[in-house]
Amino acid sequence: MSTPDSDAPISPLAGLGIAVLAVSTSAILVRWSAAPSLVKAFYRVLFTVALLAPVALVRHRDALATISGRDLLAAGGAGVALAAHFASWFESLNHTTVAASVTLVQSQPLFVAVGAWAVLDERVSRRTAVGIGVALAGMALMSVSDFLTAGGAPRPLLGNGLAVVGAVTAAAYVLTGRSVRSRVSLVPYVVVVYSVCAAALLVVAVGRGDPLTGYPPREWLLFLGMAVGPGVFGHTVINWALAHLESSVVSVSLLGEPVGSTILALFLLGEIPTLPTVLGGAVVLGGIYVSAS
């Protein structure tokens, strides 16, 4: 596969491993922040843009200037989809457990596989399909814990529904990235996507009347942490991997996020996973191995 940045300095699968570790911290940082959901999402993306824009302007100025109108439009669509993903998923974490929310939001491979077949004409191999099926079965098992734990979540049905909306919009984001990234280099692409995403989140947050200032230093550090960890080392690395791997492989590998987030939630938030959560996590990892190996 030839791409604008096809000389990968590291293995794409190793890059995915780094991304999974980084995005696994996202739910914890979101939970720690007391700011409104849209404000958290907005500053996460805004700070990510602030970190990457200087690199784009200094080292990728020509690539930025030569992005076609079609690719700009597609990148803009990916940015709107990403904004919808963040808005729904961050709000989901206010109503359900970390394990259930992160697990359900990563049900995106189901939608990615269908979309890749319908839109990108990608064939999903039998091995990948089996891996996705196994991983989704593990996710369903993990989700059962949300209903077995009395008082474990304030509004699990709402939270889980919002997480599924986040999965659908994340699939749209991944599929659009897969298409555009075959023609546009990583940094220019993500700067455009994140800029549109931040603008969309800002419009909605202002429309809702959420305060954008007046937060204590701890909140600003959390916003920055969301940008550096899940933003730069998570989503940006994922976009890099999309230039080298099939979108279905990238998506199913991200099913490792629920496992990582569940473990972090145990130690940092005191959320003790139930037996279905532990067993489901093991099944998810098995599905990832089958699909990506």
UniProtKB/TrEMBL annotation:
Query: Transmembrane residues, as ranges?
Result: 12-35, 41-60, 72-90, 96-120, 132-151, 157-175, 187-208, 220-242
Task: Give the EamA domain ranges.
Answer: 18-143, 158-291
Q: Which UniProt keywords apply?
A: Membrane, Transmembrane, Transmembrane helix
The answer to whether keyword Transmembrane helix applies is yes
* GO CC annotations on file: membrane
PANTHER family according to UniProt: ACYL-MALONYL CONDENSING ENZYME-RELATED, EAMA DOMAIN-CONTAINING PROTEIN
Protein name per its UniProtKB record? Putative drug/metabolite exporter family protein permease
